[in-house]
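#structure-requests
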Amino acid sequence: MTSSTGPIDATATSAWQDLSAHESTLTPDLRGWFEADPARAQRLTLQLADLHVDLSKNLVTDETLALLVRLADEVGLADRLQAQLTGEHINVTEDRAVLHTALRRPAGAEPRLVVDGQDVDADVQAELAKMYAFADRVRSGEWTGVTGERVRTVVNIGIGGSDLGPVMAYEALKPYVQDGLEVRFVSNIDPTDLAEKVKGLDPTTTLFIVASKTFGTLETLTNARLAREWLWTELAAAGVLEDSDDARTAAVAQHFVAVSTALDKVAAFGIDPANAFGFWDWVGGRYSVDSVIGTSLAIAIGPDGFRDFLAGFHAVDQHVATTPFAQNVPVLMGLLNVWYVNFLGAHTHAVLPYAQYLHRFPAYLQQLTMESNGKSVRWDGTPVTTQTGEVFWGEPGTNGQHAFYQLIHQGTRLIPADFIAVANPAHPLRDGDADVHALFLANYFAQTKALAFGKTADEVRAEGTAEEIVPARVFSGNRPTTSILAASLTPSVLGQLIALYEHITFVQGVVWGIDSFDQWGVELGKKLAMEIAPAVVGDADALAAQDPSTRSLISTYLALRS
């Protein structure tokens, strides 16, 4: 299959027809299935690098899984995966390769990856080496600010993939961050974001990273200019900045670096182009945390930690590329999502990490999955033939248990959920004789058990419950979950988790026939914002050109802004 080949309509395949017939006769019965098949958990538990993945509490039989794997074959998943890995332009609307997997290929990998006449491996390794060298300079104290002080705070300025990935990974890997270093993240154009993130910082020990491939992203460049003005103002107030353009330019060169390929714009801002780290148009923003977009992370956890991070990604890439679909974890999880969305009517998908350091992981997955698969046309421009995408959401346990789990347990909507945990905590605290992490994970195990098996009316009555409230205390069960368990949350394990969901997203996109790598839906609002901006600052003609609702809202805003 080449990038120019139109998608195979999944609904026209024999596997899809057989899945529809299968679904019409299937009555989910996790209790019964486990009782009839004591080996179910063992058979449906798979190993993905360091991740122990239990699929047994999903609403599937062996026949369901066989049909889903057949569907993958009939829509050409293997060919599409090969096309992606070898650099065919499967991002059709932008005529680009999709090579985030190349970012984590180890140095010296064979055969060499050459795409469009370019040695991709050499390019990637060169930028990584440059980033690692810079990270070492910051971590060692060799890189200093205008007063010769070492960097103690890094402020990453970006948005979307230039923010969500780095901040999620930094939060997840805090135990690996070098002592005396802190990273803060600015993304929102709301001036409150920048104001709060620079509050209390010493300008002489602060380094800003401006992450924007084109160095033209509205939010990022606005925040970068505000940060530059803050630096100048604070350095002057501290008496360490002369009142001259040359001094201000020199200060920017020592306190700002860029992740960008627009070197002319980088230089015009005042950043030395030698301190700009580049990446390529075949890296989508939401797939870029393992590129130099992760410069702030490389500084925080060090080059060795970042290499371990990349090795985790690569381990999953290898599994996907070499493992038969029937045992291929990301493929099976992607197909399960298709099963729930297209056959069982699910609209959302919960991701519930029982690991506080992963508290930003669901937010990261929101961009990865919904920006990728929120499409209503296929990659050849024809309308989709199925429902596509699902709303990803979640919070860490046990917080979520005291918030929204009620809906998952007893609501009317089917909400598949992924539960993620680690066996060894970074902080093995005890409450008297109690191991607090063990208590925490007791909740992790209990929730999936309760969701799967529920509680019958007879079981409720046996507890002596008054008959009139028995119905309120019945749990139907048959609420599907996947359990993911690792030994510890290391850089490698985090890379594995991210790559797992990248490939899950890819599998769903192939079944649905969509281009999972463009994001035109993001562009319209950005374009309209630029057109509306003059009206918001009082341009009467621009205001008159708006639709009645927008005009009314802006008029109200102008009246309130006094």
